Amino acid sequence: MRITNLKPLISEEAIQTRVKEMAGEISTLYKDEPLVVVCVLKGAFMFFSDLVRHLTCKPELDFVRLASYGSAAQRSKTITFTKDVEIPLEGKHVLIVEDIVDTGESIEHMIKELEARNPASVEVCTLFFKPGSYRKTLPIKYRAMEIGNEFIVGYGLDYDQLGRSLKDIYVVTE
Ligand code: 5GP
Ligand code: MG
């Protein structure tokens, strides 16, 4: 399968500029506090790797994977943890790094799961936020960019597993 209709939306340069700005804000805020930065696989892997290399605080890094049944635009509401964090979180600050917060179902599930481990705090840093479809009230502290209700791919984000390796962000137009 190939993705055929892609319209350029955000350039690699624009993403990198925002990533550096966010890394600066995060570094200033956490300073020398114990911090675990958690990457939500697979979509956030590129954003996470760029973000953490610009952090001047010295966090521990870990990874989680969520599975939601259904594919691409037809996502269902059933969410499970298929890979958990391996580092103990108790007493440490936790920063969840997500690719995109859409309805907020996935991130709400994750915040609740991680808060149960008694961390000092849990915050979210998302590359993309869709204000038009967010249905939750939990605050999303760090949002690199806001977009409309379009479906995007590239820079880690996929359409049925395709498009993750693209450097720029594209809208799938079908
Ligand atoms: P939510 O649970 O907030 O509705 O959906 C969040 C997840 O759905 C994201 O982490 C991402 O995996 C997927 N998702 C939502 N919108 C998009 C999109 O525009 N493009 C891609 N590739 N995935 C999306
Ligand atoms: Mg995701």
The low-confidence parts are none
| Rg of Cα set | 16 Å
How would you write the strand order of the largest sheet?
A: 4-3-2-5-6-7
Q: What is the approximate shape? A: globular
Number of strand segments: 9
Question: How would you portray this structure in words?
Answer:
The chain has helices at residues 12-30, 45-53, 105-115, and strands at 6-10, 35-41, 60-68, 79-83, 93-101, 121-129, 142-146, 152-153, 169-172. It is of the alpha/beta class and 174 residues long. Helix 2 (45-53) links the parallel strand 2 and strand 3. The two termini are 14 Å apart. Guanosine-5'-monophosphate is lined by residues 43, 75, 98-107, 151-153, 157-159.
Provide the fold topology:
Blueprint lengths: L5 E5 L1 H19 L4 E7 L3 H9 L6 E9 L10 E5 L9 E9 L3 H11 L5 E9 L12 E5 L5 E2 L15 E4 L2
Parallel strand pairs: 2-3, 2-5, 5-6, 6-7
Antiparallel strand pairs: 1-9, 3-4, 8-9
Helix pairs in contact: 1-2
The site of guanosine-5'-monophosphate has 18 residues, from β5, α3 and β8.
Quick structural overview:
By secondary structure, the protein is an alpha/beta fold. It has helices at 12-30, 45-53, 105-115, and strands at residues 6-10, 35-41, 60-68, 79-83, 93-101, 121-129, 142-146, 152-153, 169-172. The chain is 22% helix and 32% strand.
List keywords for this structure.
174 residues, alpha/beta, 6-stranded mixed β-sheet, 3-stranded antiparallel β-sheet, 3 helices, globular, binds guanosine-5'-monophosphate, binds magnesium ion
